[in-house]
Amino acid sequence: MGRESRRATRRPMSGTVLVTDTMTEEVIGRIGNLSASGVLLIASKPLVEDALYQFRFALPDNNGAQTVEVGSHVLWIDGASAPGQSWVGLRFLGLSTETTQRLRRWAEAAASPAPK
User: Fold this and answer.
1) DSSP readout, 74-106?
2) Residue 1: what pLDDT?
């Protein structure tokens, strides 16, 4: 696997983590990968490029799952191969220090080698 070149480590999501638009309470897609600064969303609902959204998802961890709510800015949208889906790159906005640290720890946990 190649070395991560982004500023924030991204971790692929294992399993399905659904993302809800908090304004409409509709599930708009699922997470492809996640970092402390953004997410690759596999969207099943249309989103608007350069728009702002408020999303909620359950971050899986060793204690089950913790709900995370994030402000997000749509940076880009690209068509996916599945009909009705698109790839969406989002940057998080205005996260609390606690949420940022929690996302960073979660993303970096997969990048750390397992103890021997």
Assistant:
1) EEEEEE-SSTT-EEEEEEEES--HHHHHHHHHH
2) 37
